[in-house]
Please model this.
Amino acid sequence: MWEQITTNRVKSAILVAFFVAFVVLLGWVFGRTTAWGPAAPILAAVVAGALAFGSYYNSDRMVLAISRARPAPPDEFPFLHNTVEGLAIAAGLPQPAVYVIDDSAPNAFATGRNPEHAAIAVTTGLLDKLNRVELEGVIGHEMSHIADYDTLLMTLTVVMVGTVALVSDWMFRSFLWGGRRRRSVSGGGQAGAIMLLVGIVLAILSPLIAQLIKLAISRRREYLADANAARLTRYPDGLASALEKIALDPAPLEVANKATAHLYIVNPLKEHGGAMNNLFSTHPPPEKRIEILRGM
Model:
């Protein structure tokens, strides 16, 4: 359990550091291959950051409204509230607000910019189809997302993805317009030609690379939340059994869409398996997560 937690934290840090280095590299190439200089990447980061953090401070209300979640009254859902309260105490967190989604498909998500403004939403299908220890595992997973500030981390990755998208678009337009390249590149002989070629390749491929890194970070945080849930509940098989039931349940989650699917404990948009789909998925394969949990 502790080995999984440490490994996933280290791998998450490596991915984030690599992402930052990639953004810096792209900005440097942009400055070397166009007449814009270093100001444009900084401007792109400011624009992407303003857009991302504007939605970040309102994300909880937006997501809950889109998902048609309603507050869960304690007298109607006493065990759910007791479970959330107990695991919040175990995690050393304020108790998050509790919501339910009237949907027969079992699933759950956490949202909120920090532990003081957090919420956990579960479907009525989850409450109907999971037993006590399975529900504790799911709530422990979502509590771990809150404790690890995963909403903030994913917002930062969105900022970097937005920065890369803006910079690559500006680079590509500069190359298409022509005459915008810096004299040091256009007159730099073979080295300048190589730098220009690198700039064109990055302008084309960098948005895809950035998206793949973001998805890899998302998948790594799911593994980390699984391991932390096992630490909180001291019973990894509870979450493993819950993931199995959620993944195999045939009922579609009607309120889910591509904008919110990454928040749920299991991707509610049913996809075919395969290496390529796994590469472009926000979640690791459920069977892999279950295997790791049952090996703890």
Remarks:
- Residues 1-296 form one domain.
- DSSP finds twelve helices and four strands in the chain.
- The radius of gyration is 22 Å.
